Amino acid sequence: MALIVQKFGGTSVGDAERLKNVALRIAATYRDDNAVVVAVSAMGRTTDDLIELAKDVTTSSHPREMDMLLTAGERISMALLAMALDDLGVPAVSFTGSQAGILTTAVHGEAEIVDIRADRVKDAIDEGRVVIVAGFQGVDPLSRDVTTLGRGGSDATAVALAAALGADVCEIYTDVDGVFTADPRVVSDAQKLVEISFEEMLEMASAGTGVLMARSVEFGRRYSIPIHVRSSFHDGEGTWVKEKTMEEAIVRGVAHDSSEAKVTIQGLADTPGIAAKVFEPLAIAGVTVDLIVQNVSTEGYTDISFTVPKHQLAKARESSESIVADLGAGGVDVDENIAKVSIVGAGMKTELGIAAKMFRILSDSDINIGMISTSPIRISCIVALDRIEDAVRALHNGFKPALAPQEESL
Amino acid sequence: MALIVQKFGGTSVGDAERLKNVALRIAATYRDDNAVVVAVSAMGRTTDDLIELAKDVTTSSHPREMDMLLTAGERISMALLAMALDDLGVPAVSFTGSQAGILTTAVHGEAEIVDIRADRVKDAIDEGRVVIVAGFQGVDPLSRDVTTLGRGGSDATAVALAAALGADVCEIYTDVDGVFTADPRVVSDAQKLVEISFEEMLEMASAGTGVLMARSVEFGRRYSIPIHVRSSFHDGEGTWVKEKTMEEAIVRGVAHDSSEAKVTIQGLADTPGIAAKVFEPLAIAGVTVDLIVQNVSTEGYTDISFTVPKHQLAKARESSESIVADLGAGGVDVDENIAKVSIVGAGMKTELGIAAKMFRILSDSDINIGMISTSPIRISCIVALDRIEDAVRALHNGFKPALAPQEESL
Predict the structure, then answer these.
(1) Of the candidates A285, A287, A279, which has an alpha carbon nearest to the alpha carbon of residue A313?
(2) Whole-number Cα distances in Å, A42 to A48, A133, B77
(3) DSSP B212
(4) Given an 8 Å threshold on Cβ–Cβ distance, is B83 in contact with A62?
(5) By CB count within 10 A, which of A6, A56, B29, B191 is most buried?
(6) Rounded to an integer, what distance in angstroms lies between the CA atom of residue B247 and that of residue B345?
(7) To 10 degrees, what angle do helices B274-284 and B313-327 make?
(8) How far apart, in whole angstroms, are the C-alpha atoms of residue A202 and residue A197?
(9) pLDDT given for residue B89 in this prediction
């Protein structure tokens, strides 16, 4: 008997019919002689509706009460899902994050799972029940207040539960067939990956591949839980995210991200500790900095450029302007018309000339590179927003990302 | 500094505007140097909407999951109310039934409060906060499952909290001005009672006066918590329900109830234990029997009549038919066209001839009496459904229920 954790997002349980279909799928897994634990999101637009309702009442921020409010959403979907399973003759029980022992930090709206005390979940499994756990939520053990995990939180719930229970696999059901070598909406011949390593998936997720959030991949990596990203519409195999893949592809995929903007602080005196003086105030202001590039110093002065989410741009600009004033720098320049394209692959660790080939491919397509950032298994370039799709297509065509061989998938 | 528990029902928090008005009222009480604990119901139609949603998913009964589902409703209203108070500069915190330590029996949908461990509520009061507690819900300490209290549950939450906290008063806010000497929709000169004793209010509630549920009155009586039933639309005094009233009115009020039907089992052999043989199977079938009348035995045979809620009539008829078969009785007769009219007053304990006067008044109005039932402070008659309003008016006019004197109210 295997222990399988399944995660269904809000779209999968968007209405009564879909929810009953999800119940059928869970029941089939259970009848295949598996123990099944399910993490479920709030139905369809529920969370958005609750946020709207809060906006009718208040214009201020009330993080604790907002979490109390939003966690009503999963409560509804999980109870209904347990009912639907019961109707199929599958004994089921629903637990809130708190009841499932999901302990988190105290940061309302962006809490992180620190531990899972899954005794109740285990007891229910031992009783032969399917356990439905509310995604996206937990409890801060010190204040005993309810918390939410922020965007992609239900994925994190699922993978963390799988880790805590020592599950054989964590299945993430989604509206696409798996992880692709590039966004299929941009690259028509993008292909579904059979498998991808945790490290590669982490880089892909950070580089803009939205199908799986980086934090849930990190959980899977840390506790060696294979993650199967698959379609909620059919039974076909999706993409396995796992420890090691059969073959180290040089380039596993091309990712892109158009959600960021570039900020440049010009004319900084190039003294030791200058980067800290720039980025500490940004961190305190709550700005999430992604890429950072510092230009070579010219006559003792340098420019520092970094990218931030567009929705944090106002905050980033404000912070940067006071940094400029404090440090007597030259000024702040902001560019919203940028996007990031990345190639990701574990094979590039040992392969020379991959970066050079990437720059050449972009250059051959007359695409200027604004910033470059690299990790051992990823190279990212900032390009003009209106050229991003050309860049993705050119790189996908130039590298022809390697699919892991079909017959060696799990 | 007084400690005041306030209860607001679903209509009072029906939308964002009303909810903000409720917050203003709570804030005013808090600023009058009171500690305030609030029990709140789900917003407007939320509970009904959730029940509808469950009907889309399942046609079976899932008591545990239904409670999980329905408790989402108060979670939403209480979080929003805490936000609205915070916006008014009043520190507030919301607690679920479980967080507020409301321990109940395990009967999902109809749980009863057995204890309140209000440590978290007390701590929050000590921190100067207004505490918003979810009405209608609690937790079974053995299974640690969420429960709901059934109809009128939020009133029970409020009064039980008031008892546990040793509150000075429990204020029940409602859409009427208080408890009236009769239903003002039936009797145009019905008057608002200034005060009424717990015993009288219990009889009035059981006899059909819907403004306060019997179980919450019982809590108030047991723990001597004065209950102030008052309007959520204005600041005027409502009705005080309390230990003793200034004056024992002979008749405090006239109550009526059109929600019941009468069942008669005919031709029962009048042997010892026959009543038990009739009512045990009904209890097992979950039928709530109200009035019971056994006729005088004729030639060793008797009839037993009883009233049940109309919505339980099918169940009651089925049960009764098997009782008839088991006991070899004559048959079952069912009458849905009945209603109950009652007069209630502590003064009738010591006053002779009240029942006779009641029967005379009904007789003078040509109203037939089908069944009679009495308690020390109440007399109820079953009459034809189409004469119930005439009966209420005639009795209200004949007895002119005594209002407690205005100047002696609290």
Answers:
(1) A287
(2) 10, 11, 18
(3) S
(4) yes
(5) A6
(6) 11
(7) 140
(8) 9
(9) 97
Interface of A with B in 92-151 (CB under 8 A): 92-94, 99, 120, 144
State how far the alpha carbon of A191 is from the alpha carbons of A117, A305, A368, A397, B166, in Å: 39, 34, 27, 12, 68
Section A156-163 average pLDDT: 95
Decide: helix, strand or coil at residue A239: strand
Homologous superfamily (CATH) for A339-404: VC0802-like (3.30.2130.10)
**What's the angle, vertex CA A327, arms to CA A263 and CA A291, rounded to 5?**
25
φ/ψ (deg, to 5) at A334: -125, 135
- What tens digit of pLDDT does each residue of A296-330 get? 777 888 888 899 999 999 999 999 999 999 988 99
Residue type, B263: V
Instruction: Output the six-digit token pair for B124.
Output: 């929050």
CA angle, residues A182, A183, A188, in degrees to nearest 5:
85
Classified by CATH at the fold level, domain B2-174 comes out as Carbamate kinase (3.40.1160)
Instruction: Please count the other Cβ atoms lying within 10 Å of the Cβ belonging to residue B5.
Output: 28
Query: What kind and span of H or E run contains B293?
Result: strand B292-294
Note whether A2-174 and A339-404 share their fold: no
Burial class (CB in 10 A: 0-12, 13-18, 19+), A32: exposed
Choose, out of A69, A131, A145, the residue to mutate when testing the contact with B (most B CBs < 10 Å): A69
Chain B touched by A54 (CB under 8 Å)? yes
Residue A23 is encoded by which pair of tokens? Answer: 């119940």
Can you tell me the distance from the alpha carbon of B347 to that of B250, in angstroms, rounded to the nearest whole number? 4
> Spelled out in words, what is the top-level CATH class assigned to the domain A260-335?
alpha beta
* Domain limits, chain B: 2-174
Token pair 């050079």: residue: A356
Contacts 24+ apart (CB under 8 A), A269-274: A269/A300, A269/A301, A269/A327, A269/A328, A269/A329, A270/A297, A270/A300, A270/A301, A270/A302, A274/A302, A274/A304, A274/A327
Cβ distance of A54 and B84 shorter than 8 Å: no
Among the listed residues A139, A149, A135, the one whose alpha carbon sits nearest the alpha carbon of residue A103: A139
Could you tell me the pTM of the whole model? 0.81
Give which of A85, A73, A174 is closest to A124, Cα–Cα.
A85
Q: A51 in contact with B at a CB cutoff of 8 Å?
A: no
Phi and psi of B384, rounded to 5°? Answer: -65, 140
Contacts of A89 (CB under 8 A, 6+ apart): A27
Interchain CB contact of B72 with A (< 8 Å): yes
Contact status, residue A242 vs residue A191, Cβ threshold 8 Å: no
Residue B210 reports pLDDT greater than 90: no
* Closest CA relative to residue B379, chosen from B352, B407, B354: B354
Q: A72 and B69 in contact by Cβ < 8 A? A: no
Residue A121 Cα, gap to closest chain B Cα (Å): 13
Write down the pLDDT at residue A403. 62
- Which tokens hold the place of A336? 């919203």
